[in-house]
């Protein structure tokens, strides 16, 4: 019993020396301490695994001149920085989602959308018809890296700049070129020039109207306006035709034509792809009261070129110069066309004779004036300076 009471006393004494604590706060303190994560057997093996040990033969490194350490340094020094608008080389590796995947040497492959695969694409064109697999070519980067490190690239923008360079060079030489019509509208037609869309105004299309039949046809063209800043390209078929056709045309030539339209002031006649005006006053020596009684659209006629403007492609025509007798275009046009060449020859010979006569008359006037001046000069020799000045004033008044 004494031992039992001694033990209780000792316990009470020890409790008196223990400071009072908050049991709840102590529990909370220990609850915030994270327990170490228990690794699985696979994780422990993986942590200890250092990979296959490669035995590097120093003799082999010396023989090839390149070591593993040098390779690691080269990889670390490689810069995979690709910026927007950079032009890089790449290889098409596969088609994907309406475009294709391109390896440009970046950490992730680049993507070429269908709309960026070519400068001009017909409706319904597929990526397979534009780009070949394993094809290596230049691409322009057109975006920043996305969250996956992928870039967007373009071929169209490279082709666009190259096309404008060619067009500017073509404008400098001002040569005639051919282009294909791809569409028409109310104002004219659209032609494809080096992959660029060029507008042809209807007023600059010779011999026809800009209708659906024009699509797919190639026509000779020349530039009217080239403005890269405004992306504006305007062409003319009339300028090209004028340059090729009018080089061989001269005043006095007898040519064949087709009446295209009648107006109150005359008829428009197509001549070698160009449109010439046959004014109503140039149709016949006699007065014409009803133009439709003399000419009809679609009628083939012969006429003479009496004037032309090669710069603007305008031709003035005449049939009255081909009339054997005044009024034959009204009474017997077939006779006019049958004798056109002979009548034109006689007309031109008459014109040449009248021209020479006018030149001779002008020459006589000049020579007569020269003789009068000589007589006036001889008359004032030996006179005083005042008389000479007066004579000079008289001469000036005569010449004025």
Task: Describe the structure concisely for a colleague.
The protein is of the alpha+beta class and 400 residues long. The protein has helices at 2-16, 23-31, 41-48, 58-64, 68-77, 127-130, 156-173, 237-245, 328-331, 333-338, 340-379, 385-399; strands spanning 87-96, 99-103, 110-113, 136-141, 153-154, 177-184, 188-193, 196-201, 218-227, 232-236, 254-263, 266-271, 274-279, 300-309, 314-318. A hairpin with a 2-residue loop joins strand 11 and strand 12.
Structure, described:
With 400 residues, this protein is α+β, with helices and mostly antiparallel strands. Among the domains are: 87-154, Nucleic acid-binding proteins (OB fold (Dihydrolipoamide Acetyltransferase, E2P)); 174-242, Nucleic acid-binding proteins (OB fold (Dihydrolipoamide Acetyltransferase, E2P), Beta Barrel); 249-338, Nucleic acid-binding proteins (OB fold (Dihydrolipoamide Acetyltransferase, E2P)). The chain contains twelve helices and 15 strands. It has helices at 2-16, 23-31, 41-48, 58-64, 68-77, 127-130, 156-173, 237-245, 328-331, 333-338, 340-379, 385-399, and strands spanning 87-96, 99-103, 110-113, 136-141, 153-154, 177-184, 188-193, 196-201, 218-227, 232-236, 254-263, 266-271, 274-279, 300-309, 314-318. A five-stranded antiparallel β-sheet has the order 3-2-1-4-5. Strand 9 (218-227) and strand 10 (232-236) form a beta hairpin. The longest helix is centred in the last third of the chain and has 40 residues, at 340-379. The radius of gyration is 48 Å and the shape is elongated. The termini are far apart. The relative contact order is 0.05. Mean pLDDT is 78; it is low at 16-31.
